[in-house]
Design brief:
8-stranded parallel barrel, 12 helices, 5-stranded antiparallel β-sheet, 379 residues, alpha/beta
């Protein structure tokens, strides 16, 4: 496997001929909806034999409504599938998910299903108030743990992932104790346990997203730690790469000092955004599915460029009204660059947010570089 960047005048026939592969193999590996429309600068995966360094852990987050096409396109590459999400309530109960069929498909394909537990409101959005109500009250916390354990058993989950965000700074110690109590309950019956963390670069980093996440303590508690190394470019933020590699490195430099690298699953973004220019603070970017990028860039007569510092692709274009936009996204080059960090830092693997939209080039690059660990065989 290697990566080819489309040059002016290239056709898919020419690219296939030059690289000794078939057109159908290129179309399949790169999920091309129209193989005759190739924007200049598009990165294509050239399928072929690869030397895999080692096997790694691969987690993918998915919502229960994921299509069979996206799910079955991803499962062969996953160790764990984290179903998103059961939401906690202030009385210690949790919301239930339409997850039965999803869990069954995981086991059929040799993937371990994991329940993700969040402090989200039922209407959406993370809430520090909900987290505080549960972790600060011993009776409610005990009830929550019991309810989660019962749900894991009843639905035949393999483990639990906790993703609490915007926890209050003053609740840092309470949150760490909450995770310790959960870990003890889970290990008594053999469940796996992972925790999602905000992308910190120092112990003293301020901000509601970061202060309650104690990297050292949580790294010692959890079996695996998922670090959310994405969303520098986000819906209501300024235009920039979603996961610039220089920013990802800063997080990993700090993380490996606080916890064993083999416990870390580096976050991988499976999406992009398009911003309106000139950017106005508070305006929303439009999310992009990675599979739609080639068609979008070609239809807008846009050449795809690559930022060497961020190791991320982007393109500018004008819509029918004459308004300028800029799109930042992930492609095989940026994916390969970040996957190289797994070996460089000795990480345990990666975690994708999220796999609800299928992007085959990602799986082609991943499987070309690494094998995937499985916790049990298919059956």
């Amino acid at each position: 496997m290697y990566i080819y960047t489309v040059k002016p005048g290239d056709t898919l026939f020419d690219i296939a001929q030059k690289n000794g592969v078939t057109i159908s193999a290129l179309v399949a590996a790169n999920q091309l909806s129209d193989p005759y429309k190739l924007p200049v600068g598009l990165a294509l995966v050239i399928p072929g034999q690869s030397i895999r360094e080692r096997s790694i852990v691969v987690n993918g987050y998915a919502f229960p409504g994921i299509s069979d096409i996206a799910l079955l396109g991803a499962l062969q590459y996953l160790t764990y599938l984290s179903v998103f999400s059961a939401k906690i309530r202030i009385d210690g109960t949790i919301t239930e998910l339409n997850d039965t069929a999803l869990i069954r498909k995981c086991y059929v394909n040799g993937v371990a299903p994991v329940l993700t537990l969040t402090n989200q409101r039922e209407s959406g959005g993370f809430s520090g108030d909900i987290a505080h109500a549960v972790i600060a009250d011993e009776e409610v916390k005990t009830k929550l743990i019991q309810n989660v354990m019962e749900y894991l058993d009843r639905r035949n989950y393999f483990g639990l992932n906790i993703d609490f965000e915007y926890v209050r700074e003053e609740d840092r110690t309470l949150y760490t104790q909450f995770l310790l109590d959960f870990a003890a309950a889970l290990r008594r019956v053999g469940y796996s346990f992972s925790v999602a963390l905000a992308p910190k670069i120092s112990q003293e980093q301020s901000g509601l997203l970061y202060t309650a996440h104690d990297y050292g303590a949580i790294g010692s508690i959890a079996d695996k730690v998922i670090i959310m190394t994405y969303e520098w470019g986000y819906t209501y933020g300024e235009p920039m790469a979603v996961a610039p590699i220089d920013k990802v490195r800063q997080v990993l430099d700090y993380a490996v000092m606080e916890m064993p690298p083999e416990k870390i699953l580096m976050g991988m973004a499976n999406y992009g955004y398009s911003w309106t220019l000139p950017y106005k603070k508070g305006t929303a970017a439009r999310p992009l599915s990675l599979s739609e990028i080639p068609q979008t860039a070609y239809s807008q007569y846009a050449d795809i460029r690559f930022d060497d510092t961020a190791q991320s692709p982007f393109f500018r274009y004008y819509d029918s009204a004459g308004t300028e936009h800029i799109a930042w996204f992930e492609d095989p080059r940026s994916i390969e660059a970040k996957l190289k960090l797994v070996s460089e830092y000795g990480l345990g693997g990666v975690s994708y947010w999220n796999i609800n939209t299928l992007y085959r080039p990602n799986w082609a690059v991943l499987s070309g570089m690494y094998g995937m660990e499985k916790v049990f065989g298919q059956g």
